[in-house]
Every structure is written in structure tokens, then in C-alpha cells.
Amino acid sequence: MLRFAVRRLLLALAVAFTVSAIAFMLLRLSGDLATTLAGQEARAEDVERIRQQFGLDRPLILQYGDWLWRALRGDFGRSLFYPESVGALIRDRLPNTALLASLGLVIALGLSIPLGMAAALWRNSWLDRLALMLAVLGQAMPNFWFALLLVFLFGMTLGWLPISGTESFANFIMPAMALGWYATPVLMRLTRAGMVDVLAADYVRTAHAKGLPLRVVLVKHALRNAVVPVVALAAVQFGNMLSGSVVIETVFALQGIGYLAWESISRRDFPVVQGILLVVALFYVVLTLLTDLLNAWLDPRIRSR
Amino acid sequence: MPGSTPVSAPGEELAAQAALPAPARRRRRPRWLRNIGLIGSALVLAAIVLAALAAPWLAPHDPYFQSLNDRLLPPYFVDAERAVPAHPLGTDNLGRDYLSRLLYGARISLLIGFFAMVVSGLIGTLMGVLAGYFGGRTDTAVSFLVTTRLSLPIIMVALAVVSVFGGSLEVVVLVLGFLLWDRFAVVMRSATHQVRGREYILAAQAIGCSVPRILWQEVLPNVLSSLVVIASYEMAQAILLEAALSFLGLGVQPPLPSWGLMVSEAKEVMLFEPWMIMLPGAAICVLVLAINLLGDGIRDLTVPEGRA
Amino acid sequence: MSGAHKSGALLEVSGLSVDIPTEAGVLHAVRDVSLAVRRGETLCVVGESGCGKSLTSLAIMGLLPPSAQRRAHRLALAGEDLQAAPARRLRALRGDRMAMIFQDPMTCLNPAWTIGNQLEEIFTWHGKGNRRAAHDRAVALLERVGMANAAGRLSQYPHQLSGGLRQRVMIAMALMCSPDLVLADEPTTALDATIQLGILQLLAELQAELHMGLMLVTHDLGVVARIADRVAVMYAGEVVEEGPARTVFTAPRHPYTRGLIDCIPQPDRMVPGQRLGTIPGMVPSLVGEVQGCAFRTRCAFARPECAADVAPRHGPDAHMWRCVLPPGMLERAA
């Protein structure tokens, strides 16, 4: 377990480092930063002065080291549009996205695990087919379109839920549904496939032979083994939701980091984009690291190694 | 599941399915029903491809021609009274014929989906086959690249890159191609790895075949079926992503009739003209559904009838 | 009179059939099987693989796969009708009054839980006592089945044990609630030859010690000769001969039994280089209607009347066989 954990941690560190380099490069690709900072009407010598003042004339590798060092302490620079620092902007918006993605995950797991279990238990029943149809359809619907359908139904026609904004909890319901819907099919298919395999396993037959109550057989002996890959995938899906939040938050004008990212990209406010990219990527790296460790721990065969 | 390569790739489910010798992960539908799915999706896909190719002849109007007098005409199935025979599916808020735009939109979706899939397939297959064949450091390097790629939020990176380089078709294709290769790599790695240990590969090595020759002649034909399945899946993904990027205004640029862009343009008037978001959205949905079902059908055909 | 109708039998099976629908037609995997096990008695069910002996034990436990259909005139444990019992009652009986030991100990233990957890849960769920008592019982039984450091083993996971040790765990698990009847389905087939005998001896000892009924399914007739009180020989889903072990071994009445006995290597009676007996031919397909004696295609004594259904014949000391041959015919074959 320790050997595995150390190897996994090293991989995560290497990935985090590479991702930071990619985020850094993105800002450089976006054009000459000195010109952007100096403004459209700046004279050539002003641009040059800014270039020296911000250290933009130094070798790229030094600039990167400098930037990384500051980023590690939470200083991502200044927004070109907002008066706040990038760090403050992200801290301000991140809780909304975290709440949204968590709700989305709860919805996705709440739908996919019972549905996947039921589909595996009653294979080839109408319920199994319905679940499969939902999964196939869910994977084919563009998420922004599904979000708009929700808006049309619950927001405009029925008038139950607010269609945009961040003010109340009600504002989070439709976005969370849209995000959760997107993650449900793959989680459900995996739960079903895992349950089908596990239900045919000899140890489940042993559990029946022991005369354990059905719920104990299904949950303790079957689900416990089927759920391990689902946990791993759920973490990946949570990370994907942070990325998918760009689309969903934009549809609902929900003030999270996804919406901020879209706004900033549209305004070419690249220091903000860079900061968000780094935060989201690092979050994903940490999340998958923790999941792999948790999974290793859940599997006694790896834990005891 | 964490193993020797701790990559929590969503492709692992697919990788497991593509395992050779492939045990059927699950038997979902009776065979005749699956064949109906396969034939049906192939027919729908063929119809869309033909419609896209024949758009210049099929489309009743120029998809870019604006006519402010004919703005927001409803299609026949919405309001037969106000509908006009010249515009059977109505017009958008600039008075452009919706049917023509939908037909031309199919070209954009198919074009971007196909070429993005080709680009990502070439990158991912190369990486996966190399990693699976050579193992060791090559494998570690590829699994590192896959992990790195997975930690990058696709839509954000795509939006940022498109905003830097502009939203031309070529840029969108390349961006998506460079972001969607991970599943190819994961699946091809495990498939190649499994084929690699078989006797006929050892035999080929023993009689002194060169490595590229072995890869091309022995490995590739054996992993082709998994390749086709992933390709269909990635093409569908690319189409969905292009639609999302265009919807967010940072993909295909107006006045090109991308379906995602059409949904975006229609959302301003969706309260009064809901059909305007329904049509392009449903078009994306049907296309993606057909591609996914075709991939599933091909997988079910190539995977032997396994345990129930 | 067949053993199934004897009063006082712990397990009564009469006219048991298992049908499995397949694409080619209905597979009659178990056909009109009647068996009985008394308290303190060991019944060995022998036959080639695929003869339906494992399905018979699963059918008794009510653990057949959902597609398989079970029918029986009577299926009773200690006088209680198992066919009429509701699912709840069956669960209460399984693990408590009747326990089963499976073929492959490598896959029959849940990899996610400790040995102790899996041993104790059967005790606590059947309401035999609290976790403390379950723990003590588990330690005592692991020691009894011959595992060193029993208390320490409880916190281990299945993958940390060898196949032989796992099968000992499975045996201990079956005994947790002191069942009246234990069904052991080829408990040593998946194990190394060197440890098979130890496991069987252990089973035989425990059976005698705890005065249980034991139904041991095996294809190894050599094993049967050592530990069986009664023997049932199955062929193609049917019991072709059943009776006290001594009688069946010394005076078999069915050619198939004779053939099986000739396959046992007997070092003291055989000349080096002498060939072991074999039974030529293949087991017939059991898909669709099966008419007459299923063994007639491989039988050296087959007669025209074998093509008609053969009614069971009974000898003294509850010996049953399904063969038309008159007595004495098989002696020459020995």
C-alpha cells in the first residue's frame, strides 16, 4: 500500500507540474503581455518599460518559476477586467461551483446506483430496458440543450424554478439536475455491469447459502464489491462536472468559476483563465489521487501489499 | 481500479470491454433487437450523411440569405396557418430558412466530428500501441500523458485555445483532436498489451520481423474492432463538444450554421418560439444517438455471444 | 422400497427434476432423483462431471440459477417441506439447519471482508448469539479444522490464505450454526492432490463427531469407499444405483457402477503395467426427451429392452438400481 501510495503521489506531482506549465504557456500564447498591459494607445517605450517592470524580458523559464512560486502561495496575479486579484475572484466564486457540482453528483449517484442495481437484479425487464434507454439518450443529448429544455419546462412553462442567477438554493436545482443528468448514464452502466458480474459471483451464492437476509446479501456482499469502480468513476465525473460547469453555469448565469471562466475567455482576461485552469486541474489531480488511494484501501488485496 | 497504472480514466470501462479475448461484459438485448439497433442507426446515419453531402441540392434556400420580412416564420407542424410553403421548417430571427441551415449544419457537425476523431485516433492509437507493445518506460510516459490530459478541463482549455487562435473549422478540429485522444490511448494500450503476449506475436519476433511490421501486420488487425468502437464514441463526443463550444460563442463562428450556434441564437426567443431550440438540439441528439448505437452494434457483433 | 421414504430420514428427496431451458431445447439436467440422508449418516453422490450431481445439491439448497426449474414429489428437511416453505423460512434454514460447502474455495469467499467477519455474520444473523460469542465460536472452529493461530486468522482477508486453508474456512463457516445437514459439493476438486485427503478426512471426522448428516458430492470413488455409509451413483441426471456402500462396492448391479469401480486404482491388487478400466463412449445429450436407459449407448451388456424406460429395481438392505440385467451378469466383468 505504501509503495503504491508513494508512486501515485509522485505521478500526481509530476502531472500537477506539467499542468501548471501548460496554464502558464496559455497566457504567453495569448499575445504579448506587455502590449496588453500597456493598453492600445501606449508608445513603444512605455511598452518596453512595462516589459522590464514586470520582468517580461527575462528568460521564459525564470518567469515561469517566478509565476509558479507566487501561484503556490495563492497569488495568481491581477484580473485585466475586475479590480480584484485573480485569487480573490476564484475564492469568491468557487463555493458556488463546489455546491453545484456536489449537488450534481448527489443527483447522479442517487439516480444511477439504485437504477443500476435494479437493472442488474431484474435483467431484461422493462425497468432494465427503460434504464438503458435513458442512459443511451442521456449520453446523446447535448448538456446545454438539456439545460435549456429544463429552463423551458420548469422555469418558463411551469414557473417553479428561477431560470438564472445565484441568489438562492432554488437557483442551483436546475443546474445541478443538468450536470447530474450528464454524469448519470455512465455511472449507471458501470453499476449495472458491476452488479451483474458480482451477482453471478460464487461468494454471493455463498452468502445466499449462509441464509443471510436478502438485503445483507445484496448490499454487504454484492454492492460492496460492485461499487469500487463506481467510486473511482464518480470522482472522475465530479472532476468532469467542474469542467462541464462552464456550459451549465453560463446557461443559468450562475456565478461560479465556470461562468467566470467563460466571461474571462470572452473578454480575453487571461490571468483569470490561467488561474481557474490551474485550480480546476489541480483539484482534479488531488481528487483522482485521493480516489485511487481510497480505492486501494477499499480493496484489501492492494491494501495489504 | 488502481492497478499498476493508476489512471482513473473513464476509458477503463471501455478498456475492460475491449479486453481480448473479449468476454461479453454484459448481454443487454436479444440479438435481433441489437441488430435492429445496428441497422436502424446505420440507416439514420447514412441518411444524415447523404443529406449533408446533398445539401446544396436538397436545401430550398441559401442558408445565409437573410430576409427581414420573413423573420421567425413557424414550421408547418407548429402553426400550419402562418407557415409558408417556401419555408417548411420556418425561418430564424434573421429570416434565414431553417431547413436549409439545418442541412448545412449537418455538414459542420459531421466534418468536425469526423476529422477530430481522425486526429485524436492517430495520436491516441500511436501512443497506446507503443505503450502496450514496449511497456516499461514508454508505458509510464504514456500513462503520465494520459493522466495529464485527463486533468485538463476539456471545455475550458478548448474555449481558451479557440479564443486565442480564432474559431475556424481547422482550429476547432485540431483542438478537439488534441483533447480527445486519451480513450484511444487507454484502450489501445490494454488491447495491444494483451495481444502482445500471444504466441503468434512471439512467433513473428522469432522469425525476425521488424517491430513496425509486427505492429502493423499482427497487432493492428487484432485490435481493429475496439478501435472502431472507440472511434464512434469519440466522434460523437467531438460533435457534442463542437456544439457546446459553438453554443458558448467560441466555436464555429456566425454566420456558419452550426447546430450548437443555432441553439444559442434561438435561446433569445425560446419562450415564444420553443421549436427553434428543439430542432437543432434534436438534430444533434439524433446524430449522436445514431453514431453511439452504431458503435454499440459493431461491438456486439464482434464480441462473441458470451456469458449472460 | 427406496430410501427416500424411510421414516426418520433427515433429508428426503423424492422424484427431483431440474430442467434448464437452452436455445437447443429443454435440458433435463436432473431426472427423477430420489435420495435420503439420515442423521449421522454420510451419503456420497458420485458420477462424471455434468451428470447433475452438483445441480442436485444446489436444488436441495434452493440455490439453483433463476433459469433452472425445480420439481419434486417431496423435498424435506427433518420432516419440513422445503418446497412449500416461504423464502423467509428457507433463508432461516439455510446456513442454520443445512449448510453447503462449495467446490472452489478461491472464489467462494468474499474478497472484501475478513475471514472473521464472514464467519461471524452467519452466527449473528441466525440469532445464535452476540458478536463476542460468534468470535469465540469462530476461533474454536478454526482450531478444530486445523488452522494454527486461529484468532489471528480472523482479521485476515481471503486472498491472504491458500486454497486449502480457505476450504478449511469454508468448512468452519458451514459448521458455525451446528447444522443438521451439510452438503459438500466436490469440496476438494479445486485443491492440490496432496491436501485433498486431509480435507476429506477432516470432513469425515467432523461428521462423526457432530453426528450430522453429510451429503458429499464427488467424482472420486476411491474417496467414497473410505467414508460413505451409503452411495448414490448418478449418470446423465439420473440415480442409476443407490444403496449401502458395502453392497454397492461388493455387488454392484448397474454396469455403470461396475465401470466406475474398475476405474479405481488398487495398488495392492494390481500388477504394475496393468491398465485401469475405462468406460468408452460419451454421455448422451439430455436436451429434449430422454427415453430408456441413458447408459445403453456405452454399455457392453445393452439389450433391446434397454430402449424402453427402466423401472427401479430393489434388493435387500435398501439397494436400488435401474438395470434390466439379471444378478450375476456383472461378476464376469470384474
UniProtKB/TrEMBL annotation, chain A:
Gene3D superfamilies: MetI-like. Keywords: Cell membrane, Membrane, Transmembrane, Transmembrane helix, Transport. It is a multi-pass membrane protein. The chain crosses the membrane at residues 99-122, 143-163, 169-188, 274-298. It is found in: Cell membrane. Residues 94-295 form the ABC transmembrane type-1 domain. Coiled coil: none annotated. Its main location: membrane. One of its GO terms (cellular component) is plasma membrane. PROSITE patterns: ABC_TM1. GO terms for biological process: transmembrane transport. PANTHER family: DIPEPTIDE TRANSPORT SYSTEM PERMEASE PROTEIN DPPB-RELATED. Belongs to the binding-protein-dependent transport system permease family. This is ABC transporter permease. It comes from Teichococcus coralli.
UniProtKB/TrEMBL annotation, chain B:
Residues 106-295 form the ABC transmembrane type-1 domain. One of its GO terms (cellular component) is plasma membrane. It comes from the Bacteria. Its main location: membrane. The chain crosses the membrane at residues 36-59, 108-134, 154-180, 272-294. Coiled coil: none annotated. SUPFAM superfamilies: MetI-like. Pfam families: BPD_transp_1 (PF00528), OppC_N (PF12911). It is a multi-pass membrane protein. Keywords: Cell membrane, Membrane, Transmembrane, Transmembrane helix, Transport. This is ABC transporter permease. The lineage of its organism: Bacteria, Pseudomonadati, Pseudomonadota, Alphaproteobacteria, Acetobacterales.
From TrEMBL, chain C:
Signal peptide: none annotated. One of its GO terms (biological process) is transmembrane transport. PROSITE patterns: ABC_TRANSPORTER_2. Pfam families: ABC_tran, oligo_HPY. Keywords: ATP-binding, Cell membrane, Membrane, Nucleotide-binding, Transport. It is found in: Cell inner membrane. One of its GO terms (molecular function) is ATP binding. It is a peripheral membrane protein. Residues 11-261 form the ABC transporter domain. GO terms for cellular component: plasma membrane. InterPro entries: AAA+_ATPase, ABC_Ni/Peptide_Import, ABC_transporter-like_ATP-bd, Oligopep_ABC_C, P-loop_NTPase. It comes from the Bacteria. Belongs to the ABC transporter superfamily. This is ABC transporter ATP-binding protein. It comes from Teichococcus coralli.
